[in-house]
Each structure stands twice: as C-alpha cells, then as structure tokens.
Amino acid sequence: MSSKTSLKMCLLTVLILLISLTGSANADYILGTPTNLGPTVNSASNEQAPNISADGLELYFSDYQGAQYRSGGYGRSDIWVTTRQSKDDPWGVPVNLGSVVNSSATDEHPSISDDGLSLYFGSNRSGGAGAEDLWVTTRETKDSPWGEPVNLGSTVNSTYPDWEPDISADGLSLYFADYLSPRPGGHGEWDIYVTSRSTLSDPWSDPVNIGPTVNSSGIDAGADISADGLTLFLALPVPADSVGPTSG
Q1: Is residue 47 within 8 Å of residue 61, measured between CB atoms?
Q2: Which of 32, 65, 102, 130 is most buried as measured by Cβ atoms within 10 A of its Cβ?
Q3: Within the chain, what is the greatest distance between any pair of CA atoms?
Q4: In order along the chain (248 residues), what is the average pLDDT of each group of 10 residues?
C-alpha cells in the first residue's frame, strides 16, 4: 500500500482539475488563495482528504500514520473531525472518531452525507472484498455516536482497491476511484466509477465507469461532485519530485 499512499500524496498536493459532466470547463468557479488551517487543526502528521459538512460546521479528514504522530490514533490512517459553532468561528481541536469507526488498519478519505448522518470512507480492514473497500458508518442524529461501519458489499466493492468515495448531495450517487480493476469499461490505471440508487432505502447498483470524457489512460481519482450534481472535481497526479512536503 505504500506506493498507493505515495501517489495519493501527489494527488492531494495538486489543485483540483475542474471538469463538468458534459466535458467542458466551468468558468463560473473563482478559487481564492488557499489559507492554512493552522496548528490547531494541522500537525506534524499528514492531514489529507478533507470533506466539509453541508452546514460548514464539521470538517472530516484522514490523518496518515496518525498513531505515530497524533495522539489518540488507532491505525496507519485514522478519520478525524474538527468542528466550529458557526462559520465565523475558528476550527476546534480535531477529535478522533474512535475505535468503533477507526481500526488498526488504514481508514481514510471520509465523505459526509448532506444530512450529516452517513459517513462513507475507504478502508483495508478485515471483512472486505478486496485490497481496499468502501464502508459507511451512520448515526441517528448529529449528536449521536457513529455506529459500527458496514461494508458496501460485493455489488459495489471488487477484489481490487476501491477507495476515495464521494456521496452526492441527494445521497443517490456515490463516486469513487477504482485502482487497477478488471471491471468492464475501464480506461486507465485508475478510473472513476459511480454507483447509484433510486431512493435512500434502496441498495446500491453495479458501479458504472463514467467514461472516456473524464477518465483517461492514466490515473484519474479524487472525485468530488458539486451540490447541484452538474460539476465533477477530480485530482490528477504529478511527479513526486515536483511537489514539496505534504505534512500538515
């Protein structure tokens, strides 16, 4: 998994490539100057894969090798959350989601549903179908503890790494990256797929490759669907020697 993690660092160092689902760039997005979240949130470890809640008050992220650098970790990579009372308040000290969600393995790339009650993530813990699977943990209310994670099953997961989930605002589409998969319709080393369902109570369908307009013969990953479902952000790799340190 070390080579995958190294490449993931490269992916997360690059500012996202903006592509609409029709294949044309959307010029309506104006990105401001990045601002470091500071030492309250960041540490000497590698904070990565941030995902903010719809209300803007919770920021989930994975902390690679958290058990080594950040106290309170359980595995090679854990999922943490930092919160604030309002959008004008500073972020608080990050809190580990605990041993119910995190394991002694790698738990990473969280994606919080718009209602704040479901958290999707990738993990190579035992009980999965492949090298890394997609899992979901749920809670009854935003004040309730997270429940035992559930594997999304063999319909969604394959025997190869399936990771970097991103849930749509309506909760009916789940985008993810599939690494070196024999799934039909693949175009490159990593491709982005989507699984869908008709209602929140329906099971997820067989994943579908989103096609050559977005996927290339190289590595396409880090999918992040906009709230209106019309724009897909994704990350592209850069050579490892062309980026600076990736620690927080």
Answers
A1: yes
A2: 102
A3: 47
A4: 39 36 53 92 91 98 72 88 97 96 95 98 91 96 97 93 95 92 75 96 95 85 92 68 39
Helix (H, G, I), strand (E, B) or coil at 6: helix
Task: Name the DSSP class of 21.
Answer: T
| Residue 157 and residue 129 in contact, taking contact as beta carbons nearer than 8 Å | yes
Tokens read off for 126: 């035992």
* pLDDT value for 217: 83
Tokens 């959008």: give the residue.
87
> What does DSSP say about strands 77-83 and 58-64: parallel, antiparallel, or unpaired?
antiparallel
What is the sign of the dihedral through the CA atoms of 101, 148, 106 and 184? negative
Residue 74, SS3 per DSSP: coil
Q: Which residues pair with 48 in a beta bridge?
A: 62
Q: How does DSSP classify residue 101?
A: T
Q: Are 220 and 188 in contact (CB under 8 A)?
A: yes
Which CATH number is 2-19+45-238 given?
A: 2.120.10.10
Q: Given phi > 0 = left and psi -120 to 50 = alpha, else beta, which region is 229?
A: left
Instruction: For 135, list phi and psi in degrees, rounded to 5.
Output: -130, 165
Q: What is the pLDDT of residue 11?
A: 35
Residue 43 exposed, middle or buried by CB count within 10 Å (0-12, 13-18, 19+): middle
Amino acid at 31: L
Q: What is the pLDDT of residue 57?
A: 98
Please check whether residue 48 is in contact with residue 62, taking contact to mean a CB–CB distance below 8 angstroms: yes
